[in-house]
Design brief:
Layout lengths: L5 H8 L12 E7 L4 E9 L5 E9 L2 H14 L4 H4 L4 H8 L7 H21 L17 E3 L4 E2 H11 L4 H8 L9 H18 L12 H5 L3 H21 L3 E9 L2 E7 H5 L3 H16 L5 E4 L1
Parallel strand pairs: 7-8
Antiparallel strand pairs: 1-2, 2-3, 4-5, 6-7
């Protein structure tokens, strides 16, 4: 059974903005019913060019429904230019987290937004940016089971810093059925990251996290995503060694509200774990202002 956050459960059980917009200014469909997930997104703009209404209809799992619901909440009130910058990472951040195996649902939401913007521009004779192109119809089909192209694999890998075939499967489904394309996916990844390395050989390694000033300048959604990323990569694996776990529940100012899981959730040393491991690591990698509180 998947370990869903309370926010994912809420957006699944009480999805926002479900339905259709009859006189929509833009409509987009992504995914494929035969593959298990499909999303149709409707947008209505106001006189100022901002998204006044966004509705969706999704065929898929709890993560697909929750991601679609979160997407509509993120883009309402934004201009199309602002909405075009919404990423699958923003969707995951709003939901707290998603199981790695369900990350493709957040990617589907991002693709629906980009496709809807492209549809709006096509209707109004406007130029379409490359980021808004539909990868389903671009490039060469690599995974025939899920109709995933090499262009989409490269794009998603770059956007989410993916280096393994398993990660590509989690984010795109490619390779998740017959498995015949696994070697080809690995070749695409090897070539992609070799190109990136060659393109900037003298570039300094990216810091694990921004300094305090950079962190303070981030939006609340970006802060949540950053904290969740650090917890996932640096803290959770340490707790899992002892049969524990951790989930980021919310962020209140500079206070990260977390929930210890498994053995850690019932351990008499829980307070010490929060202070000496979780808070210490977040202060080390994110900001000295961070404090941690248990939900």
């Amino acid at each position: 059974m998947w370990d869903y956050t309370d926010k994912v459960k809420d957006h699944f059980l009480n999805p926002r903005n479900v339905g259709e917009i009859e006189d929509a200014d833009a409509v987009a469909e992504v995914g494929n019913l035969t593959c298990g997930d499909a999303l149709k997104l409707y947008l209505k703009l106001d006189a100022d060019g901002k998204i006044a209404d966004a509705k969706f209809k999704t065929f898929g799992c709890a993560s697909a429904i929750a991601s679609s619901s979160a997407l509509t909440e993120l883009i309402k009130g934004k201009t199309l230019d602002e909405a075009s910058k919404v990423t699958n990472q923003d969707i995951v951040a709003l939901l707290g987290s998603l199981p790695e195996e369900k990350m493709h649902c957040s990617v589907m939401g991002m693709e629906a937004m980009q496709a809807a913007i492209a549809d709006y521009k096509k209707r109004h004779g406007l130029a379409t940016d490359a980021v808004e192109e539909d990868d389903t119809h671009e490039g060469r089909i690599v995974c025939k089971c899920f109709n995933v192209t090499d262009a989409k694999i490269r794009k998603v890998a770059l956007a989410n810093n993916l280096h393994t075939v398993a990660q590509i499967t989690d984010y795109t489904k490619a390779g998740g059925a017959c498995g015949r394309c696994l070697d080809e996916i690995q070749t695409i990844l090897d070539d992609l990251w070799r190109e990136q390395s060659t393109a900037a050989p003298a570039a300094a390694p990216a810091p694990t996290a921004p300094d305090t000033a950079a962190y303070d300048a981030l939006s609340p959604v970006r802060k949540i995503f950053l904290l969740n990323d650090i917890i996932t990569r640096e803290i959770r694996p340490l707790l899992e060694r002892d049969g524990g776990g951790i989930e980021l529940v919310d962020l209140d100012g500079d206070t990260a509200i977390v929930r210890l899981q498994g053995h850690c959730g019932h351990c008499v040393c829980a307070s010490a774990t929060l202070k000496n491991l979780v808070e210490k690591k977040l202060r080390e990698l994110v900001s000295l202002k961070i404090t941690v509180k248990e939900a």
